[in-house]
Amino acid sequence: MSSPAGGPVFADRVLNDWLSSVGLGIEYSRAEANTLYYVDEDGQEVPVLDHVCGFGSLIFGHNNPDIVAHAKTVLDRQVPVYVQLSHQSHANDIAAVLNAILRREIPGGDGDYAAIFANSGAEAVEICVKHAELERRARVAKLTDETSRNAEEAREAVGAGRATVAENPYVRFDGASGESDRLEQLLAEAGRRNAELIARGPVHLALENAFHGKLVASIQLTQNPHWRLPFTSLASSTRFLRADRPDEMKAAVEELRTSLLDVLVDDGVVTVVERDFPLVGAFFVEPVQGANGMRPLTGAAAREIRAVCDAVGCPLIVDEIHSGMGRTGAFLASSHMGLRGDYYTLAKSIGGGIAKNAVALFHRDRFRPEFEVMHSSTFAKDGFSAAIALKVLEMLEADDGRAYRIAAERGDRLKGALTAVAADFPDVVDAVHGIGLMLAVEFKDQTGASSEPLREKAASGMLGYLIAGLILREHRIRVLPVGPAGNSVRFEPSIYLTDADIARTENALRDVCTILRDQDGDRLTP
Ligand SMILES: Cc1ncc(COP(=O)(O)O)c(C/N=C/c2cc(O)cc(-c3ccccn3)n2)c1O
């Protein structure tokens, strides 16, 4: 692959060659609403219906005219964009709107959330990882203060002859020269074990096939082994739990249970008490699992996850980066399944399709105010993206939430069309998943296909990409795969999706299903 000028290639050489190999190697020249455009070899502008929309970042479409006009006004007004470490009231303006929405949408929502801004979704997740660790360390400090006080009381009691040291499973008192010596041996061993436990760092919980970003801490929460495994030594580990087996969650978390040793005097006898140690730092959850094929959480899973967090005492972090901002027909997808979070993350559409923005929200009962001056970023909370975010929130909330109703209605209409195709091709399509405009079609596994090209493509995990390539090439519609096996195709357009767009989409899907039913693997080859 070389650059158009034929010169050397310094960026995306591998990526661009691979995209071309699966039929997705197109450079788009213009974008508006749900349409991308490229210029073909005859110099003609070719429209493409976009169902990817920035992986769900464009609830109001590409270059929305109202948002672009607002951006121009903001820039013409010479808004201060980068004024870090000054009063930036737009941050609280956004947080105030978000809190009003959260009070409306969170079941039993009893409070306000503090906002910390970021430049990307993954960065918002990293902020939550850091803040959760502040919370956890405070719990550890409270525990170690208590154990230190108890140790001193034991020393005093034994020293004054008011207590003796009982036999215990942690230390063999061979050769001890008296009660004080026995106590010091016990305190030394308990201190060693406790120090080892405290130094381990937290374990985080997430759901299988989770996607929470690709930065150093957030990649540990993204289960995809290809993306995560090379980097597991860089940050805390994650215990991935099955969303479809909420009944197994308690037992799985119980396996992580561990104790701090507390040496204390009980009725004149020094004994060792095991105190629950807060090893679990947080539970990260997507209300609709994007990378798992747009699978919504069930109500049972939502209730169990909340119960696990309450039992363990860790924050429940609801990651609405993909599912939030109205995409599922409500501002928060978690409102559909009654999931209440301690933290929330938002990104993607809050940037209005032209800015980069993200926000992490922390319930006031958990928020550590010192975090405001501990975490910072040059570009976060900037004046331009904040102005865009306020415009996007205004558009979402306008006319009593008309945009949410449109997202729900368009999503139902699109899901109806996809489901109709699935019903006509039960041997090819497994299911249609998702809520609102966060949908996916899951194709049956083709690794046992009679067609060798199909079998090979499916075995390589490329089936979804090759289906996307065919739909683009022959139907001028842009989709991309999703799901752990890559055999699902995502549909996450803007609310401006028309009935004609839906009809085109249904027709393209029927064409793909016919190819798969006829095992015509060669047609998928670009
Ligand atoms: C729930 C959730 N939490 C954090 C993030 C990270 O946000 P940023 O991308 O803004 O850092 C995302 C953003 N999602 C990106 C995404 C989601 C997905 O399902 C697939 C791919 C992807 C990207 C490249 C190649 C293949 N797949 N990317 C998300 O969906």
Automatic annotation (TrEMBL):
Pfam family, one: Aminotran_3
InterPro entries in alphabetical order: Aminotrans_3, Class-III_PLP-dep_AT, PyrdxlP-dep_Trfase, PyrdxlP-dep_Trfase_major, PyrdxlP-dep_Trfase_small
Keyword Transferase (UniProt): yes
Cofactor dependency: pyridoxal 5'-phosphate
SUPFAM superfamilies in alphabetical order: PLP-dependent transferases
Top-rank taxon, per record: Bacteria
Gene Ontology molecular functions: identical protein binding; pyridoxal phosphate binding; transaminase activity
Record keywords: Aminotransferase, Pyridoxal phosphate, Transferase
UniProt family annotation: Belongs to the class-III pyridoxal-phosphate-dependent aminotransferase family.
Protein name (record): Aminotransferase class III-fold pyridoxal phosphate-dependent enzyme
Organism taxonomic ancestry: Bacteria, Bacillati, Actinomycetota, Actinomycetes, Kitasatosporales
